[in-house]
Amino acid sequence: MSFALKRPWLAVILTAFFWSLLVTRLANAQISGEFETLAGPGWEAHRISLEFELTPTPEVSLSIGQLRFSSFDLPLNNLRFRCRQLGSGPGRLWCRSLQASAEFGSLSSIEVIKLALAFEFDWAQSELLTWSVVIEDASFSTGLLEKYLPPASLPSLLSEFTMTDSLLVLQITAAGRGSQLENISGSLGLDKFGFSSPWGTQAAEGLSGDIDFSIALDREQDRGGAHYQFSTQMVLSAGDVFINPLFLTLGTAQAAETASIIEFKAAGRWQADDLLLSLNVSYQHEDLLEIAGAVELDLFETTPKLLSGFGRLRVPQLAETYPVYIQPFVGDTLLDDLSGSGKITTRVSYHLQGGITSLGLRLEEITLIDRQQRFSISGMTANLPYMGPNQSSEGTLAWDHIQLYRLPFGAGSSSINFYQFDPADSIKSIESSELMEPPGSRLELEVSPVAFLDGLLRAGQVSISGLGRDSLQVTLGGRIEPVSLAKLSVALGWPEMAGSLSGVLPAAHYQHGRITLDGKLALNIFDGEIEVADLEIENLFGLVPRVSASLRADQLDLGLLTNTFEFGAISGRLSGHINQLKMESWQPVAFDGWFQTPEGDPGPHKISQKALNSLSSVGGLSGALQSTLLRFFDDFSYRRLGIGCKLDKGVCQMRGIADHGDGYSIVEGGGFWPQINLVGYNREVDWQVLLRRISAAANAEQLEFR
After folding, report:
1. Could you give the CA distance from residue 578 to residue 552 in angstroms, rounded to a whole number?
2. What letters, b where the CB count within 10 A reaches 16 and e where it falls short, cover 313-344?
3. Residue pLDDT, tens place only, 318-350
């Protein structure tokens, strides 16, 4: 491409060059000229002086007192140009060494920019053949820059940003042919630089660092289009950066030994004829985060198309990386409040035709502790490779210790099998013979037996299907082999229980944020059985977990149960149910509960004075026995007992085994003397009040002993 000469003032200067060369044989002659004003579309120059030194090596000097452009508020002052190696040939004019300088700014803040230039001009064709520019020294403030670059001259996105007054140091070297840029390189130094966006979502303060860049024409490419190689490197050594939601603190230049450094690199190739961009990038924040990758983009269409890509991410110290780069993105989630350690490495590759062609995750000695005490895991290592669609990928997972709420689990390991169906594959529905989407991806784990307190948890196979789809499902089951209730109760912060716990865990399913059981959960406890049916859990690790279920208790030994909770001794058996249980944040909000002596229970049926006082304190008068002769007996006989509560809207509707006038019978006497009956009259009890009474065994109301 050619550069057409269309600027009148430049024509005047070059004409003077031309005529000066006609008299170059006039040794030691000097020609000079002055113009008060020259003007053209969008520009105006004042106090122009041109001077020729006609020596064997001609020199030319040009000075312009002031140069104004209509698009800029402030002028350039005292422009100086001096060519020390002016030459000419057949139809050509060139200068090998052209020094230039200019002043800009206000009287209170004058900045000087110095340049070195060179050019070769085809006079006959009015074409600029070659040129080069070197900005040797350009130091200026951002405040001055904003005056010379008003918002109208900037892209709308940049014009919205506000910059703090700071120093920028620019150096540039550029060269080309005609209007075509062949290479440009340079650096920009930042000193206490800052900016902010209108809404405060991006901001920086006190940034110090350097930005290096280069662009070069790739001459080895075909001449059909311009292909450029480019690279840039940015190093930030001080300051603070906020890019919502990230906040990065690099320290100060005065404390360089404790400051962290961010380094960003990018290099690639731009093929202008077919609009292809190849890009390699890397980002490193010292020991916090390392990211590297490469992409190939097709920019021919309105929406860029990713042809291929590769990426790698490494977290060398999770303890340092989590609060800076992870926590800001996981607010109000399970990972919101963690402390951790270990190393994480991930990689991924992509191709337009095959989608994600490989994926890998490596964990090294990972420890995660939830500060809200919902879970913890330590010593976790993993190697999880992915080999592409329709290929089985084998991996491993191991850990030293896991804690779920207050429940501890020992070391374990698992093999991992991952399989992804190719999205291009379709499946025919047997019923309709229509093409259906493939079922996404499937992950299967074969988990080793894991210690659970002094017992064992056998989880067996865990299956996760529909990965990457709304139909994600997780299925698992297992068995609990006898666990000491004493150890379990201590772990949960309950009163110490006697006996053991064992049972079968039916297949559990997770889908659409909900956990359900494929059957009933049966637990052997207190020499009886508790069965959990219709169990559903939503938002398990969220702020407000929700649980619904129905429970059935059969033939629980009251002796084991009451002795455990220091309720007072009661002999006999107990059966009952809790139907339509609803819990939020692990607190009951609704249920219909009933427990009683089972039919045909042979006994013996004995209840201690302490147990009676405990029952009376739940809904009656504490210490009621102390006002009767019954206080002289330690134990009493009873025929049956029963108590129920239907919780709704924070109020418990109480009931007993039978109505008794205005009240209800809780304990019905029978058997050998002394016998006792317990009758309650308060049928509505505030649930929180009831909980406090059960917990503290005090503050009782209307109960009658006969």
Report:
1. 7
2. bbbbbbebbbebbbeeeeeeebeeebebebbb
3. 999 999 999 888 877 777 888 899 999 999 888
